[in-house]
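Hi R.,

As promised, here are both runs. First protein below:
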Amino acid sequence: MAIAKAERLMNLALCLLGARRPLSKRELRESIEAYLEAGNDDSFNRMFERDKDDLRELGLVIETVENLDGDVGYLARRDSNRLPPVTLDAEEAAALGLAAKVWQQARLAGAASGALQKLRAAGMPEDVDPYEPHGALEPRIPVHEASFEPLMLACRDRRPVVFDYRKATAARPEQRHVEPWALECWRGHWYLAGWDRDRQAERVFRLSRITGKVRSRAGAFKAPVPDVVTVRETVAGWAGETADRSAFIRLRAGSGYPLRAKAVSVRELGDGWDELEIPYGHGLDAWLVEFGPDVVVLEPAELRADVVDRLRAVAKG
């Protein structure tokens, strides 16, 4: 369906751009095969109005012209839809090249390379090599999850999605119906923020816990999209980054490096165990459960109880 609509929009745009005079709805319907297949005039009119609005939203300037007889025609003049030449200085070209290089390890590598080729054809300086190293550090955004691309497109197009999601404390995945808002990378992991229709609340999902395919659903969003989506702040809060107290845990030697990285202090206990003092905030129990038998909570007591409860829930399945 998405391919058919894209083809229909392209055909409509070409008709409007190629016409030397305004074209009526009847003429457009006779020129585009998809419109000929519309069941009746009402179906065609609804389809045409949606397509016209979509093209305008994409930036195509469509004029509505009424002749002396009162008939309405549509036209997209080439001079009104011609973009000015692309002019980039060396610093701007280098910035775009660096941005494209970030995506070279992701599934957007092909799109990034194609965009650079178009920019070069449009006037990007030839002496700037976007893939030339710009320093000792090479920026990359790791994207290994198959769900990234469909979720990115769903965020862009404001399309609801359905996917199976396994929480850290659950043995089996559950189906989630989500209105996706934004994707963000935090400490090497991608997260999706959106509106969970089943729970009627904002939720953040870690992409590595999405199982199976992400399926798109028809219809518009039911919940308003916030102006600012604080993905990192939400995840940081769950991970205890905003903590104002400490927890003490035993951690098996040679394991749990994310925990060691945020530890306030580390003390060797011997027998293959270390004692760590780590920040304690909301969601720390869920994070500790992920390390399984490599972590033992010493204090506080409520954190230990929460971790034990989560482990028992996982064991019960």
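And here is the second one, sequence first, then its structure tokens:
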Amino acid sequence: MEQINFAAIDIGSNAVRLLIKGIYKGETANQLKKTFIVRVPLRLGQDAFTLGRISNDKTERLLRLIAAFKQMMQVYRVISYRACATSAMRDASNGSEVVRYISEQTGINIDIIDGKEEARIVYDSHIVDILNRPGDYLYVDVGGGSTEISLIKDCKLKDSRSYNIGTVRILNNKVRKEELLKLYSDLRSLASEYPDISIIGSGGNINKIYKLSGTAKGEPLSLESLYQVSNMLQALPIKERMKQYDLKPDRADVIVPAAELFIQITRHLNCKSIWVPTIGIADGITYSLCSDYLNTHNK
């Protein structure tokens, strides 16, 4: 029996990903299984946040990458895909021009989405169902260019906000103090209104921190463990972090500001831990594509 495959291309500020997930006939979207994944550290945010535009070199590298992704989707006989670009492409003065050029050259259409759309896509992955725990949640996605927070109450997305605060921005000193203060103020308001709120953390950095902490699978990452991992990493130069903890170069530098940001978010919400179900925007995209397919073909 041949698998029915769906693909997501996530063009982020730090890396570009291709995720392919599939089901077999008779299965549901909840049974999607990972078929193929690749992540390439293109770091578009380095250009967007310092130069204000995507350079010709990065544009050509992105073009070759998307062309390669198209080939992989053909190999896996993907029946439906969506490509989304986030913070770096939003900020770049030539972002629309870049995606139009790549679409013309490859035939792959790319949507530049805003922070609220990012949050909605992740919510579409039914992230609360994965935790299988009732309650109020704040979904926090820390990326290279932006941080999205989404309030989930009674398993429904109530509100989402996006802030121009991300790990690549932090490394390049491109985060405005006013933006940080706005985030912290919003978090304190949420903590006051929802005193029992829990945090769901998303992104490659929190996933790696979770793994380094040694927390048992299915258990939340404690604030104490988050502090320990953060201190452990900060004490080492980047090359030593790579060597001792098997970190890739593009992860070894951004993981420290990510840890600090999660610490601040946890403190301002008065939370003691973070749930880390290792799911993100690409999972949400494939879930939505699969659901749409099944709704159409099961009528």
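A quick note on the second one: Residues 18 and 69 are 7 Å apart (CA to CA). Let me know what you think.

Best,
J.
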